[in-house]
Amino acid sequence: MGLQLALDTEVATIDKERGRYRAHLAERWETWGPNGGYLASVALRAAGATTTLSHPATLSCLFLAAGRLDAVDVTVTRLRSSTRSEAMHVEVRQDDRALLVGHVWAVDGELAGFEHEVATAPAVMPPVDGTWPAQGFRNEFWRRNFEIRTATASDLAASGPSDIHWMRFLGDAALVRDPWVDACRAVVLVDTTQWPAANRHHQGGDGEVAFVAPNIDLDVRFHRAAPSNEWLLVEAASPVAERGLIAGLVRVWATDGRLVASGSSHMLCRQVPVGTPGSGTQ
Questions:
Q1: Helix axes 179-192, 194-201, angle to 10 degrees
Q2: Which of 5, 128, 148, 178 gets the most CB atoms within 10 Å of its CB?
Q3: Nearest-CA neighbor of 261 among 233, 228, 237?
Q4: Phi and psi at residue 8, to the nearest 5°
Q5: What is the pLDDT of residue 124?
């Protein structure tokens, strides 16, 4: 068995010269429809199949529709190309309806420039054998795709709309060595962990309605590849929620304390009946 994320984000080339690809959205990534980070990862893989440069630098996208877990068409258009960097526009469509539009910058992975490291990773326990956290991550989506272990001895749910856990994608980690697949891990983690951080802070109310909050956009910056890291530390927070919008910020760390990726998005609240899948559990 390969790394499930690598297998499920593969794109088939239809016409490389015109940047046309096709993919099939796998059922294991269903949340409120296809998971947004997973859909964005398919777009990223298509950009990686188009460029001759080795590493992604940034991904930014808008989610326009949920779509179905079925075939999608992906089109990549080169906007600017050089020997050092390349900008691409990516669009994912299904039944002639746009699901996602976005942009990707790719770079030469051996570029020379300033080097410094001042980001400080949280002081947490290493990923050791353990059980699922007592609160949250009960939704089947998490069990299908990740192994998740507690990163601190304290219950972070009491500290505000924030969360921190070690997370590992299920499957053979050997396939992570592709830098574009490696970046897809960060895309999924940045997109997916913002809602649990915000939602858990508001659980326990007695109202007659609940909420879901799909991401309407996503911005991920890839600072470095971490192919040897099977486990990644995910630090998610929601600093503000107002007017039906929830802000999310995520940082992804390697086991040696280096910052791998960071990102942000806005989530749009939508009222749903109590008991709707995803409204009260993660």
A1: 20
A2: 5
A3: 233
A4: -80, -10
A5: 86
